[in-house]
């Protein structure tokens, strides 16, 4: 899959230096290689132009992660841009049903899926694959033979259905739109929750073909209209996709024959050209060779450098971990302020009832003792903190009785409530300090946890040849 595209891209990356900074001239050199690789793979010219411009902008503007080689960092940028090009995260519509299935299921009644495409694109095979996939997910699909063009077409679907033990609705004669209408009725009667319509193909996008599919779409109002595209046909596939998209309200694309010597053009251009997400990939002739589409997986396959991408991700997350660590250090060092307390309250609100989760931390229950853990007054407590000046929040020790009275008035609470909150705050601060000194169980736990994950991360990075000093990490 994508062998020659992968090779060309890799040779373009090798133009980037392994040491030092990313030089504009090196980046441009590599970009020329990337451009040629994409064009040779039959990616649409306008797509290539935009993609190369986006990669250039990021590669030149990117903060250099000192620990990784420039080449590796550009691989990651190209990977991210390919993912974005193929639809990023919005492949799966957020609709009722299993979140792992990239199909918009009907809220009520059977979900009707119409398959359209050129002759030989793989519609009939994909219908059977999809039915098989949905059956494995606990659905009850009905296949519908709506290709009355070729006498053998109905038989082909019936044979496939039989081999998979999936019901097929077929009629000896009749017009496809009517057949589809009757099939949907039969599906309701037969308790099927998905109806998959296999339509006729044509050699080219022509009026007859379009008229027929449009008529079917008008009669049964499908929830999904998938365009089945042969990825081997590259640019042609994209052109026909555009033509289909202009006459049919397509909702998604299924790319077939990715197991062949695919150049990659269709996979990379179709989303940008039609705006329609790729939903599934066909990766072989067998009925189990259908996969939900994941842009990041395909991008990794195209680049053939999954390990480099994850290396850069790890280097980035090591940086993030350092930040988390700093925040924890601050918290346990005794510099816990009322602002931190407010932030915690907000976090607590997001986490749900405090008593439920705090008890899960070993040793914490007893460490808390009789501290006021009632969370109903959280809202009130927040209001009290918000009535303080920023300086008071940072240094609550300045809160003398007159300031406390002002805060009580400002937050609509009693002086007693303000005093209780301050008492809780002081208890918490004390507790944090004890934990942080390593004396408390929590402190030991946290320290060990951080130490362990840090060591693991460092080992990994070192194994990959990352210069730890560059990351600002010591190497013990
Ligand atoms: N290698 C490979 N072959 C596939 C794939 N999908 C379909 N095919 C093959 O492509 C050929 C055409 O598939 P069909 O499913 O009959 O195509 P169609 O779009 O229904 O064709 P018409 O009904 O004639 O329009 C068959 O030989 C399939 O086995 C795939 O993902 N990989
Ligand atoms: Mg067919």
User: What is the average per-residue confidence, as pLDDT, rounded to a whole number?
Assistant: 79
Order of helices and strands: HHHHEHEHEHEHEHEHEEHHHHHHHHHH
Largest sheet: 8 strands, mixed
Counted by DSSP, the helix tally is 20
Beta-strand proportion: 5-15%
Q: Can you walk me through this structure?
A:
The chain has 476 residues and is an alpha/beta fold. The protein has three domains: 3-85, Up-down Bundle (Four Helix Bundle (Hemerythrin (Met), subunit A)); 111-304, Rossmann fold; 309-463, Signal recognition particle, SRP54 subunit, M-domain (434 Repressor (Amino-terminal Domain)). It is built from 20 helices and eight strands. It has helices at residues 3-13, 24-40, 45-61, 70-85, 123-136, 151-164, 176-190, 207-220, 234-247, 265-274, 295-303, 306-332, 338-351, 354-358, 364-368, 378-386, 390-394, 401-411, 415-436, 441-463, and strands at 111-117, 141-146, 167-169, 194-199, 224-230, 252-256, 278-282, 290-292. An eight-stranded mixed beta sheet has the order 3-2-4-1-5-6-7-8, sandwiched between helices. Helix 5 (123-136) runs parallel beside helix 6 (151-164), helix 13 runs antiparallel to helix 16 (378-386) and helix 18 packs across helix 19 (415-436). 38% of the residues are buried. Residues 354-371, 438-444 and 470-476 have low confidence and may be disordered. Residues 123-124, 147, 153, 198 line the site of magnesium ion.
């Amino acid at each position: 899959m994508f062998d020659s595209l992968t090779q060309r891209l890799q040779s373009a990356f090798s133009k980037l230096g392994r040491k030092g900074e990313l030089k504009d001239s090196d980046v441009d050199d590599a970009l020329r290689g990337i451009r040629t690789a994409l064009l040779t793979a039959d990616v649409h010219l306008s797509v290539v132009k935009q993609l190369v411009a986006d990669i250039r902008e990021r590669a030149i503007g990117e903060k250099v992660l000192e620990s990784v080689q420039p080449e590796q960092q550009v691989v990651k940028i190209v990977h991210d841009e390919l993912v974005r090009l193929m639809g990023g995260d919005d492949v799966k519509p957020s609709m009722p049903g299993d979140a792992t299935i990239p199909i918009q299921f009907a809220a009520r009644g059977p979900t009707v899926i119409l398959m359209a495409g050129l002759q030989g694109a793989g519609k009939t095979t994909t219908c059977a694959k999809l039915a098989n996939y949905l059956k494995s997910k606990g659905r009850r699909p009905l296949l519908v033979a709506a290709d009355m063009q070729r006498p053998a077409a109905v038989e082909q679907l019936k044979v496939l259905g039989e081999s998979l033990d999936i019901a097929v609705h077929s009629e000896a004669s009749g017009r496809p739109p009517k057949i589809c209408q009757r099939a949907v009725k039969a599906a309701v009667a037969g308790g099927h929750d998905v109806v998959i319509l296999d339509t006729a193909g044509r050699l080219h996008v022509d009026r007859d073909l379009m008229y027929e599919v449009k008529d079917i779409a008008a009669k049964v109002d499908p929830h999904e209209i998938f365009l089945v595209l042969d990825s081997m046909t590259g640019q042609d596939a994209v052109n026909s996709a555009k033509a289909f998209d202009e006459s049919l309200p397509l909702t998604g694309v299924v790319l077939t024959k990715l197991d062949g010597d695919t150049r990659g053009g269709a996979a990379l251009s179709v989303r940008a050209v039609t705006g329609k997400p790729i939903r599934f990939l066909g990766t072989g002739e067998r009925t189990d060779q259908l996969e939900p589409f994941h842009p990041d997986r395909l991008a990794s396959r195209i680049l053939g450098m999954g390990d480099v991408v994850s290396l850069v991700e790890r280097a980035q997350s090591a940086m993030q971990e350092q930040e988390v660590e700093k925040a924890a250090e601050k918290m346990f060092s005794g510099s816990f302020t009322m602002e931190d307390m407010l932030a915690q309250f907000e976090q607590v609100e997001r986490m749900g009832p405090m008593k439920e989760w705090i008890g899960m931390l070993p040793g914490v229950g007893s460490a808390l003792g009789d501290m006021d853990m009632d969370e109903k007054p959280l809202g009130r407590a927040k209001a009290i903190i918000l009535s303080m000046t920023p300086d008071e929040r940072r240094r609550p020790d300045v809160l003398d009785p007159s300031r406390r009275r002002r805060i009580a008035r400002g937050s609509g609470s009693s002086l007693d409530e303000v005093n209780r909150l301050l008492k809780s705050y002081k208890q918490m601060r004390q507790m944090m300090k004890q934990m942080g000194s390593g004396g408390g169980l929590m402190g030991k736990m946290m320290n060990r946890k951080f130490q362990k994950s840090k060591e693991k991360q460092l080992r990994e990075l070192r194994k990959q040849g990352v210069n730890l000093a560059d990351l600002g990490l010591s190497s013990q």
